[in-house]
């Protein structure tokens, strides 16, 4: 009986890890594609909110790649990678802050049509990624932090849509900067949450 239970547990773990790999490979491919699309749209439209979204997608692609590497690894290794993920999110926040500062000294009105089209496409793919990762939301620190990144993407997609609407409504660039500032705060909050969770997990495993 004990052997049967042990064998069943092994099969379940392998199936779970295979499912995690499959999902992470899909969301990795999606985020690479959306990053290319978003960065091109950001350059064309002159949008800070789109730039922040593209940097977020790049950070997420790196996050999912790191998550793939540590599937099946020790909890301590996963905690270390989660710490790196938190730092990547923080790095995206710093990049957005720099862009906002530059735009404040070089004001312009972004092209709202380009922002809106890119935002709709990005939001649709972000929703797909979140749906794929939701079954692993309460898994280990590795998958939990991946889900956290994907949830932020959904908020970011809605925010960029609001930026496009604001630029169109007011014919001004400040709505785009306001949304970019809001995304900056979200990145900082998320970085803190991921780093805190990862550090707690790393510390517990080190005992």
TrEMBL record:
Its main location: membrane. It is a multi-pass membrane protein. One of its GO terms (biological process) is zinc ion transport. Keywords: Membrane, Transmembrane, Transmembrane helix. Residues 24-198 form the Cation efflux protein transmembrane domain. InterPro entries: Cation_efflux_TM (IPR058533), Cation_efflux_TMD_sf (IPR027469). It holds the Pfam family Cation_efflux. This is Cation transporter. It comes from Lysobacter concretionis Ko07 = DSM 16239.
